[in-house]
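EI: anyone free to look at a 561-residue chain?
SC: sure, send it
EI:
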Amino acid sequence: MSFLKDIFARLESARDTVLVQELREDQTVSVSGRELLDLITKARIFLANQGLKKGDRCALLAHNSIRWMAMDFAMMAEGIIVVPLYARQAPAELVAMMKDSSPALLCCGDGALRDAILQNWKEAPPRVLFEEIFAKGKSNDLTRDANKAEPSAQNKAQLADSDTVTIIYTSGTSGEAKGVVLNSANISFMLGCTSRRLDTLMKNRAGQDRVYHYLPFAFGASRIALFTYLLRGSLVMLNTDLSKIASEMPTVAADYFLNVPALLERMRKAVDEQLVKKGGIALRIYNRGKAAWLRKRSGKAGIADTIWLACANAIVFPAIRKKMVGPNLKALISGSAPLAVETQLYFMTLGIPVLQVYGLTETTGICTMDDPDHVVPGRVGPAINGMEMMFGENEEIIIKGPNVFPGYWNRPQETAKALRDGWFYTGDQGEVDSNGNWRIIGRIKNLVILSSGHKLSPEPIEDELLKNIPGAQQVVLMGNGHGYLSAIVTGKVSREQVQGGLDVVNPGLPHYKQVRAFFIQEESFSVENGLLTANGKLKRDLIASRLKSEIEQMYQVRQAV
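SC: here you go
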């Protein structure tokens, strides 16, 4: 049985149970298993009436919503290959992806998204809005007329293991995004892995899990998470306004939810700022309690630490947890990028476990997952059962298993480069401890090679500098072909602040890893200015190209001195 039939069977068994809630500004829209199946059926009838056939591609461009979910499942059930697109990405980049995948139809969540594509691509394929597919009455009536659809249509979901179900485009940090092909077997395998890990987290508890979800469905890990939640019969609460995340988290009272490190860093910073502003005994207990917890963890706690930690655990930490994430949280799950050890330890101090996952779109989202009962801060857990991880050259992580994709869409040379002798070459540099827990160091292609021949991963140094330069938004190291490292620092910072950070970090590094020059740019790198990918990764080559003169100046000035 394919993952799709499993999910449909779960929806059928929960016909009268609310499974998804769409959190809107003026109301919460809920659908049961039956209502979601009805929407899927209605979408399938629409697609069939368009003359689409198995193997055709269909682009899905919309913000997260119940209708997005229904369209995704309807396309897969009809044998149509789904090309999910990130609604906040630059239209020109989206057009490039569609030109590459040649969709027969573009389904848009609203007219603004459709019009943005048309402005950049006059020859775009036929476009249709969700409103035209689902709603003939009020725009907020998600299930109007769905009950009139033919119920037997939802049961005809035939997928072979080798059938391609989706093409997900990668970030494209150093060039044009590539379409990652995933088949039914990839996804079926992965859903078994993720569900088992959640069973461990929830101690095999009976009843519905409560899950909050804000990450875009267009991203591979986010979509795998959604499929997992529905397969488990969880109650999924969808954020529809990113500015509301902080206020929604405590009110939805989730058991767990998927995050990116950037949000966890902002949560930590917000708590610090609020307590500093409030001051008084609460701030004192908070600071003393955090320090005491860290000393206790390292085995260096004294009697005073025990007292301060007891006060914090009784008065301050529970109040922060409740205000931040609500009363039910079992763990935060973090992926997409390495999480700073200090941030992971911070949440553990408050009594909030943070579980890390590591993976790529090419590995169906996940390669490793923290064991909830054996978390090692700073690491991303062991490899999931059923797959292998080992090292290639330069400590590059290579992977083999049922979760590895069959190839890139229409890119045989790129596929041959990435897949060799059954192994996928991730391009990530890592290390593993004696218990099999992995740590991700950085990207092989980001290695800085100095004129001395020294090779180094810039990410750990960048992270340390970022922590020690107040107000800095990003730190990017340069130095290929030069005799020393330099840094680009973004944000409203002074030269004194940057130098202060260097004075803290440099002494703990070998000479060739020390940063000798820097340049400050107030404007941060962003998706809008084209220097970050859609999921927040630095476009290092483009940064180096755009700031070429500033980088050259750093080396000319230093050499002149």
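EI: The first strand starts at residue 18 and ends at 23.
SC: 👍
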